[in-house]
Prior knowledge:
- Helix content is 90%, strand content 0%.
- With 154 residues, it is mainly alpha-helical.
- It has one domain (3-153).
Amino acid sequence: MNTVATAIAVIGTLSTAVIYGTDLFCALVVRPAAGGAADASIADLIGRIHEYGDRRLPVPGMASIIAAALAVALSDGTLSRIGATTALIALLAWLAVYLRISAPINKKLRAAAASNTVPTDTKELQQRWDGVIWLRTALQTIALAGLLTVIVTH
Length: 154
């Protein structure tokens, strides 16, 4: 039993759960709510949500990636290492989707909220953001399962 790898996987699980919960809430609640909202409401409220999220959520996001990488390095069993590797790949894929698609949209909506403007493409921006939220949630689910595998198999 490798208690260090298990402890790191617990930290990774908790930090991954923060992002998973946020993405799941967005998929289940924010996405349909924004779909029926006025452009000005989306630009203002969603822009302000991204202002806080983009400032506060990188800490658990990076903690989960670091923990998964450490779990890969420190796991001593095949199943644990497979779980940790699966989690790390899923988290890195999530990060790629976030950086390529979500983050640029967040930046535009944050700027709109800060300047009290409404971009002419607000609905399109929100629809593009919504288009990857289920993928992001699925990747976080896979990461959680991988990290939980480390915990269970140690």
